[in-house]
């Protein structure tokens, strides 16, 4: 992933409220377009860097369950 993608997404999302961020995530998922996946990865990376290990473990368990289905 190119660092310009990270910077562009961070700049575009700065100041957005939770409902605006949710709309962006849901729109990207609904479209299902491959080129939107790096953007969702930037969201996940930002979250990962700014959360504690307890929340990380909970998400990892949920992901493991989701991928097991």
Automatic annotation (TrEMBL):
Family named by the database record: Belongs to the SspI family.
Keyword Transit peptide part of the UniProt annotation: no
Protein's name in the database: Small, acid-soluble spore protein I
Induction summary: Expressed only in the forespore compartment of sporulating cells.
Keyword DNA repair appears in the UniProt entry: no
Species per Swiss-Prot/TrEMBL record: Psychrobacillus glaciei
A Pfam family assignment: SSPI
Record InterPro entries: SspI (IPR017525)
Compartment(s) where it occurs, according to its Swiss-Prot or TrEMBL record: Spore core
Spans traversing the lipid bilayer: none
Gene from which the chain derives: sspI
Record key words, sorted: Sporulation
UniProt record, GO biological process: asexual sporulation; sporulation resulting in formation of a cellular spore
């Amino acid at each position: 992933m190119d660092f310009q993608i990270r910077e562009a997404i961070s700049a575009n999302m700065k100041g957005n409220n939770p409902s605006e961020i949710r709309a962006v995530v849901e729109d990207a998922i609904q479209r299902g377009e491959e080129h939107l996946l790096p953007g969702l990865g930037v969201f996940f990376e930002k979250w990962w860097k700014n959360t504690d290990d307890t929340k990380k473990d909970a998400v990892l368990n949920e992901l493991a369950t989701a991928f097991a289905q």
